[in-house]
Write a structure and sequence with these properties.
The protein has 222 residues and is of the alpha/beta class. 26% of the residues lie in helices and 31% in strands. The protein contains 5 helices and 13 strands.
Length: 222
C-alpha cells in the first residue's frame, strides 16, 4: 500500500525574520506514519520543516502554503497513491502585502522591519488543498482533518460539512472519503479524541488516541 501523509503547520513569511504560523507539531501525522510503516506500507510524508519528523519513510519538507501546494501537487501528479491522509494544518490565509508607513511592500521581500514603523498586514484567502487532491490522483482514498476549538456538536458538523461540500469540489468523486474531527479543547497529553465521519455526515468511528485512529484507518482502507 502506497500512503501519502501531510503534517505540521504552514508558516507565512512577513519579513526575513518574522512569520505568521500556527502551533501544529506534526505529532499526529508522525504517529500515523509510524503505524503504516510498521504495517509494511510504503509511506511518503510531506512535513513542515519545524514539525516532528517520522522515521523510515520518504520525507519531503515544506514551509509556507505555496511550498506545500507545490510539493503536494508534484507528488500527486507523478506518483500513484492508494491512500492520502491530509492532516497538515494548512494556512487559511497567506500574506498578500504589507503597508509600511503607507507604502505597499510584498511579504518576505525586505529585511527586518524596524520598530517605529507603521505596519499593516493584508491577507488573502488560500484555496482548499484537499479539494484538489483527487483531481490530481483520482484513484486514491482520501482522509481529511478538521480541527475546531470549543465547538458545539452542531458547529463541528457544520465545519465538517464544509470540508466535504464546498465551491472548490465540483464533483462527488473529488470529495474526501472520510473526515476526522477533533476539538482543541478536548486534546491533552493523555487523550486525543477523534470522531470520523463519511460524506453523509454520519459518524463511523470514534477514538481517544491517534494510535487507535491509525489502526482504524488501516483496517478501513486495506
Amino acid at each position: 500500500m502506497n500512503v501519502l501523509i501531510t503534517g505540521g503547520g504552514c508558516e507565512e513569511p512577513i519579513d526575513n525574520v518574522r512569520s505568521i504560523s500556527n502551533f501544529s507539531t506534526g505529532k499526529t501525522s508522525t504517529t500515523l506514519a509510524s503505524y503504516f510503516v510498521e504495517k509494511n506500507c510504503k509511506v511518503t510524508c510531506i512535513m513542515s520543516y519545524k514539525a516532528i519528523r517520522p522515521k523510515n519513510c520518504n520525507l519531503i519538507l515544506f514551509k509556507s502554503f505555496s511550498d506545500l501546494q507545490k510539493v503536494l501537487q508534484d507528488e500527486l501528479k507523478t506518483k500513484e497513491y492508494d491512500l492520502v491522509i491530509h492532516a497538515a494544518a494548512v494556512s487559511d490565509f497567506s500574506i498578500n502585502y504589507l503597508l509600511i508607513n503607507g507604502k505597499k511592500v510584498l511579504p518576505n521581500s525586505i529585511n527586518k522591519i524596524s520598530s517605529g514603523n507603521s505596519v499593516s498586514i493584508v491577507l488573502k484567502e488560500n484555496p482548499k488543498l484537499i479539494s484538489s487532491i483527487k483531481k490530481y490522483n483520482s484513484k486514491c482514498k482520501l482522509v481529511g482533518f478538521k480541527l475546531t476549538d470549543h465547538a458545539s456538536q452542531k458547529q463541528r458538523l457544520e465545519a465538517i460539512e464544509k470540508v466535504f461540500y464546498n465551491d472548490e469540489i465540483s464533483k462527488k468523486e473529488f470529495m474526501p472519503d472520510l473526515v476526522v474531527s477533533n476539538d482543541k479543547s478536548e486534546i491533552n497529553s493523555k487523550i486525543h479524541p477523534c470522531k470520523i465521519y463519511n460524506y453523509k455526515l454520519k459518524e463511523v468511528f470514534n477514538t481517544n488516541s491517534v494510535l487507535e485512529l491509525a489502526e482504524f484507518l488501516y483496517n478501513y482502507f486495506v
